[in-house]
Amino acid sequence: MRRSVLFAVALPIAFFLDAQAAPGLDEKGGPSVVLAYDDTGDFGPVTPGTKTAGWQEALDYCVANARDLYVKGGFGGRKAIYHIDDTIRFPAAQDFRVDGGVYVINFKGPDSAVDAVCIDSAMNCEYHLGLIVYGGKGAGLRIKPEKPVPIDGFPVVIETQINSQGIADPAPFTAGPRDAGSGLVIDASVAGINYTKMYFASILNFKQCISIGGERGFYANEFTCEHLHTNAHDSTLLTIDRTSNANRFRFGIGVDQGATGVTGIDLHGFRNTFDLASRGGGFSKGRELILRKSAEGNQINVLTQQDILSMITDEAERPTNQVTWAGPPAPLRTIQGEAKSWTYTQRLFPAAATLTQGEAAKVTIKRGEVAIEIAAPLGRDMQLSAGDQLIVESQSTPELRVIPLKTK
C-alpha cells in the first residue's frame, strides 16, 4: 500500500525520543527491546505490576520509543514460559517487528472469558510468535483490526506477516468435549484483512479451532496451518465465512484419540484455492469438507487415501466449486433420468457425459446464461465442466453415462 511517506518524514525526531524511557533502558541502545522469561532482559515476569509476564509493558514501551521487540525463548520447552493473567494486546502498528526464540505463552486466568493474545491493526508488520496455550472461553489468538494505524490513519491488517509455532488447549492428550473456546479467531468485522501472510505450525483441541470472517472481508491472503487437528468431541476445525475470497489456504487436517462428531472445513466463502492434506478417519461422514450454500468457485486440491466423494457434502447453490485429488479418478456412473424434461448438473469435477438411451431426445448444454443445443445427441460424448447443466427432453426415460475426468 502506498503510505503517507511525506507525512512520516516530516514528523520531528523528538516525536520518537520524548517518551520517557523505562527504568534501566537506554533509549539510544540497540534496535530491540528484550523481553525475557528469566528476567535477563528489559522486561519480564518481575516487571512491576505486570499481569502479562512483562509483555504488555514491553509492547507499550516499544510504541512510545519506536523500537522492535525480541522475546527470549529456549531449548526444551520447559523453562521459556510466560504465564499470563490478562490479555496481551498488540497495538495498531506500522513497521513494527516482534521476533524471538520459541517459547510458550500460558494463559492461566483468572477471567476465562478474555482472550490470551489480541492483534489490532497492522501495516507492514512482522510478528513471530511462539506457542500459545489457552483453555478459556474466548480465543487463544484474536486478529481484529479496530484502531487506525499511526501513519496512514485507518484500521486495517495489510502487507503483514504473522507466524506462530502453534495454539493449543492445555490438555493436548486428553480426549473429550470442549464446551467453549477458540484457538484462532480472524475477525474482519470492523476493517478488512488483506494481502497478509499467516503461518501456524499447529492449532489443536478447541471447540472451534479456527474461525475466519467478518463483513469487511478476508481477501487475497496466504494462510497456512501445517497441522490442524483435534481430540475434542463435536468440534469444528475451521469455519470460513461468505466474505472470504481470493485467498490461498494450505492445511493438514486430522482427528486424534477417537474424538467423535468432528467437522473439518465448513466453507461459506468464494473463489479461494485450497491445498488440503487429510490423514483420514474420525470425521463425521461427509463432514470433512462442507460446501455451504454461498460457497462458489473455490478450487480445492485434496491429498488423501480416502474416497474423495465420501468426504464432501455439497450444498452450494451455484455448483461451480471444483475438487481435484491425488489417486485414481472417481468411478464411472450410469444415471437414470426422468422422461419429458430432466436436468443433470455436473458438480465438483469435469466429466464426459454420453446419452446412452432416450427416445427422440433433445439435449442442451447450459453454462451460466448461455445454452447450446447438441445435434444428434444419442451416443455422443459431451464435455462438461463443474457447474454445467445438461437439459434432456425425451419421450422415454433417458440414461446418462458419466466419466469423471482428472485435471490435476
* Rg computed from alpha carbons, rounded to a whole number of angstroms: 26 Å
**Number of DSSP strand runs:** 38
Q: Which class do the helix and strand fractions yield? A: mainly beta
- Distance between the ends: 35 Å
How big a fraction of the residues is strand?
35-45%
The rough form would be described as elongated
The whole-number mean of residue pLDDT values reads 91
Fraction of residues in helix: under 10%
Q: What low-confidence regions span 5 or more consecutive residues with pLDDT below 50?
A: 1-21
Integer count of domains: 2
Number of distinct helices: 3
Main sheet properties: 13 strands, parallel
Observed structural traits:
Jelly Rolls; mainly beta; 408 residues; 3 helices; disordered N terminus; 2 domains; 13-stranded parallel beta sheet; nine-stranded parallel beta sheet
Overall description:
- The protein contains three helices and 38 strands.
- It has 408 residues and is mainly β.
- The protein has two domains: 321 residues; 72 residues, Jelly Rolls.
- The strands form six sheets. Strands 1, 2, 3, 6, 7, 10, 13, 17, 20, 24, 26, 28 and 30 form a 13-stranded parallel β-sheet that branches.
Tell me briefly what this model is.
With 408 residues, the chain is mainly beta.
Write the layout of secondary structure elements.
Elements: H1 5-10, H2 14-17, E1 32-35, H3 55-65, E2 68-71, E3 81-84, E4 88-90, E5 93-94, E6 97-100, E7 104-107, E8 117-119, E9 122-123, E10 126-133, E11 139-143, E12 157-158, E13 161-168, E14 176-177, E15 182-187, E16 193-194, E17 197-204, E18 208-213, E19 218-219, E20 222-230, E21 232-233, E22 236-240, E23 244-245, E24 248-255, E25 263-267, E26 273-278, E27 289-291, E28 299-303, E29 312-314, E30 322-325, E31 333-336, E32 340-345, E33 351-357, E34 362-367, E35 370-374, E36 381-384, E37 389-394, E38 399-404
Parallel strand pairs: 1-2, 2-6, 3-7, 4-8, 5-9, 6-10, 7-10, 8-11, 9-12, 10-13, 11-15, 12-16, 13-17, 14-21, 15-18, 16-19, 17-20, 18-22, 19-23, 20-24, 22-25, 24-26, 25-27, 26-28, 27-29, 28-30
Antiparallel strand pairs: 31-38, 32-37, 33-36, 33-38, 34-35, 34-37
